Amino acid sequence: MADTGGMSKTQESRREFWRRLVAEQQQSGLSVRAICRQRGASEHSFYQWRKRLAAQLPMKFALVQADGGTPRKAERIEVVLVTGDWLRIAPGFDAATLRAVLGVLREPR
To answer: What's the Cα-to-Cα distance from 67 to each of 52, 55, 61, 64, 72, rounded to whole Å?
Structure first.
């Protein structure tokens, strides 16, 4: 059973509702306004919960390819974090340094 950090069943079900709604909005491509209208949810609450949930999630990365679907040599890599922060990494960047930077970003703030 998952550790809920002392939350009541009501609190846990509310967190799960918002976790699912945030994931659905991200996957659907619908605007926040549209998904909230469809589900009868408050936009303000959506943004508050998305921020709260993002703070609890580990960093996530996605592989991005060129429009044609064939990878090409990149001039740089850009990493956008769920917090909205981003990194621009130049070709030839030292892998050990990158691991150290990502390790710092993973630390709780």
So the answer is: 33, 31, 18, 9, 10
For the chain, the domains span 9-56, 58-109
For the segment 44-85, what is each residue's pLDDT rounded down to a tens digit? Answer: 999 999 888 877 655 555 555 555 555 556 677 777 766 666
Token digits of residue 22:
């945030």
pLDDT above 50 (res 2) = no
CA distance 41 to 38: 8
